[in-house]
Design a protein that fits this description.
The structure holds two protein chains of two kinds. Chain A is mainly α. Chain A is built from 19 helices and two strands. Chain A is globular. In chain B, 80% of the residues lie in helices and 0% in strands. Chain B is flat and about 45 Å long. Classes of the chains: A mainly alpha, B mainly alpha. At the A-B interface, α1, α4, α5 and α6 of A face α6 and α7 of B.
Chain lengths: 485, 167
């Protein structure tokens, strides 16, 4: 019997993924031989690995290589998003060790799981086949469920893991059903072929199966990016998950959801743009408003940032609704700067927090500005950037998202976005009021700032400021990245 | 005729799945799920996918459901047996549903054998394998990676079997 010939494949597009998977497995093996008090070495190793993967990813800039008979592609769009994932993973690894040590769950499995999540996210960004995107999402999600419940002694973390797992599975069902219906309507799962088939339909919006598939996929992605009304899981999961993982979850997987959704909707279903942008319009308004209004009333700062992260998904959805060059480039820009500013803010939260997840309320920041002026300035920069004030990255990001909407004629959407942004200033500034204008209710202990932590805060400050001062530095890459779409 | 069988089977599958969710007794629920999977398997056979039909029976209805049953028996979650001869109302739905799926399977196979033209249209295992490993090679690799890390996660979360952990 003759053998099945496996066609020669070009491994270049998935080189970073292969590297990170191998690294994750090697770390799993090394983990066995490292004693419990030295798990930090695994963190250092994975940080070095992430930087190396960043070099590999950056080397692929400008190329366009399809591989695995059209399952994955190496293009600027994928490369840009891969960088976002690596940034969020790298920063999350830096802040993990100190927190995990304090909470007594510094287990070596953490780092391989983070790396593995990155592999899944990368495949979501570079997948050009619905199957690759779906499997990438599953790879990411399975590792994330474990990461959310990583502090297995803490009931809240357990609850977060279980809640994320159950709701995540449910939403994955929607996504998969949507993909199946799209396959049924078009007869292929390759994104380029779907675009060709849909493009030949005389009236694609009359094809009920295709429209239902599109809406179900939209639902699945809306869950992953925590868009209202599919956001119910977010506050509980973000509050219960270990803080570094919350930081990671709010930056990386959200960007991955946007990457996959952008590729599917802009490349495969551009002929249905009128239909999906109407749905996205409603989603964007709901997400921004629900996120911001609820965040106003939060005292727990992790919960507050969870609602704020919902609101930020809403801002990005404004750019998605526009669907034009400015709007989509804005999403890419915003996701990158959001990774910096959000993880930076979470790093400060970890420093202020105490063992057992205590000291996590806004009131606990009272007097922080006096006791730790440098860290307080860093926190202020992150909060200003989150609120979208010039000259931070958050301002420029929102500027491009909203101007994209205005260019497409979505004036009201932009107005609602700006109003929301103004409302959000209240709860970000509330933290600063406590930091600078209130006397400390209790003495701050001597706060240990480890070297990785300091590095993370420094990188995050640079990442939240430089794109705001010199936007073209990042924006030119974002604009090149969306050209292929 | 095959279309009629499809609709009957689809109705049986949906009904059995609903019963699997609403049934309070875990063993009954699993048996309804097995019934649903058998109906699905026959539907796959109708759709010219005998390999998937076989997988459905061997993997899902066979291996996984038997595992479920074993776990439930080990945990002893089920109510104590009421008696050797259950009331006819209790086994009637199961008997009807499984009767439907088995009868339709027999019908389909008999009718396909009568008309030898049909099996030629069915893709062979070889064709499925070629598609799987040539076009979706990356997907196969990804699934294996995912299983590895699902295992790592399950082992990690379940190691201190102190309380019911999240997975």
């Amino acid at each position: 019997m003759d053998m099945i010939t496996i066609p020669a494949v070009n491994f270049t597009p998935i080189l970073p993924e292969i590297f990170l998977s191998v690294l994750a497995m090697v770390l799993l093996l090394i983990n066995v031989f490292i004693p419990g008090d030295r798990k930090a070495y695994l963190g250092y190793l994975s940080f070095v690995g992430i930087v190396a993967a960043g070099v590999l990813v950056a080397a692929g800039w400008g190329g366009h290589i399809e591989s695995f008979s059209g399952s994955v592609v190496l293009d600027n769009f994928a490369t840009f998003f891969k960088m976002i994932f690596l940034v969020s993973a790298g920063l999350a690894v830096l802040i993990s060790d100190q927190y995990m040590e304090r909470e007594g769950c510094n287990h070596g499995e953490l780092y391989p799981l983070i790396l593995f999540t990155v592999v899944g996210m990368m495949l979501m960004a570079s997948g050009t086949d619905l199957m690759t995107i779906f499997l990438g999402l599953e790879v990411m999600s399975v590792a994330l469920y474990v990461l959310a419940g990583f502090n297995r002694k803490n009931p809240k973390s357990n609850e977060a893991g279980l809640k994320y797992f159950l709701l995540g599975c449910f939403s994955t069902g929607f996504l998969l059903y949507g993909m199946a219906l799209t396959y049924g309507a078009t007869g292929t799962t390759r994104i380029a072929k779907i675009a060709a088939v849909v493009g030949q339909m005389s009236l694609p919006s009359a094809n009920i199966m295709l429209v239902a598939g599109m809406l179900l996929m939209l639902t699945g992605f809306a869950f992953k990016i925590a868009a209202a009304p599919f956001h119910m899981w977010t506050p509980d999961v973000y509050e219960g998950a270990p803080t570094p993982m919350t930081a990671f979850m709010s930056a990386g997987p959200k960007a991955a959801g946007f990457a996959a959704a952008l590729r599917i909707f802009l490349v495969a279903l551009p002929t249905l743009q009128v239909e999906w942008s109407q749905v996205l319009w409603v989603l964007a308004v709901l997400t921004m408003t629900v996120g911001n209004i609820t965040a106003l009333r939060q005292d727990n700062i992790k919960r507050m940032l969870a609602y704020s992260s919902i609101a930020h998904a809403g801002y990005a959805l404004v750019g998605f609704t526009a669907g034009n060059g400015t709007g989509t480039a804005g999403i890419l820009f915003y996701m990158l700067s959001y990774a910096f500013m959000n993880i930076g803010a979470f790093a400060i939260i970890i420093l202020v927090g105490k063992k057992g997840e205590s000291n996590g309320n806004v009131q606990d920041f009272a007097g922080f500005g006096v006791k730790h002026p440098v860290l307080a300035v860093a926190m202020s920069i992150f909060l200003f950037s989150l609120a979208g004030m010039p000259p931070t990255a958050g301002f420029i990001g929102k500027f491009y998202l909203f101007s994209g909407a205005i260019q497409q004629g979505y004036i009201w959407l932009a107005i609602i976005g700006v109003l929301n942004s103004a409302a959000s200033v209240y709860y970000y500034l509330r933290v600063m009021v406590f930091m600078y204008m209130k006397d400390p209710t209790e003495e701050f202990d001597w706060m240990q700032v480890t070297a990785p932590m300091a590095l993370c805060v420094a990188i995050s400050v640079i990442g939240s400021l430089i794109p705001g001062i010199i936007p073209s530095l990042i924006l030119q890459f974002a604009q090149q990245a969306i050209k292929l779409i | 005729m095959e279309q009629t069988i499809f609709y009957i089977l689809a109705a049986a599958a949906v009904l059995a799945t609903v019963l699997a969710i609403t049934e309070k007794h875990p063993v009954h629920a699993i048996l309804f799920l097995v019934t649903s999977l058998f109906s699905m398997a026959t539907i796959f056979y109708l759709l010219m996918a005998p390999l998937v039909a076989a997988f459905e029976v061997i993997l899902y209805a066979g291996a996984i459901m038997v595992l479920f049953l074993f776990v439930i028996m080990m945990l002893d979650l089920g109510h104590p047996e009421k008696g050797l001869a259950p009331h006819w109302k209790e086994w009637l739905p199961a008997a009807v549903l499984s009767g439907i799926s088995i009868a339709s399977l027999v019908l389909v196979i008999v009718s396909r054998h009568a008309a030898p033209a049909a099996p030629a249209a069915m893709p062979t295992i070889r064709e499925v394998a070629v598609r799987l490993f040539q076009e979706h090679g990356l997907a196969v690799e990804l699934i294996s990676l995912q299983l590895l890390f699902a295992l790592v996660g399950a082992l990690y979360l379940g190691r201190q079997a102190k309380s019911g952990d999240s997975k």
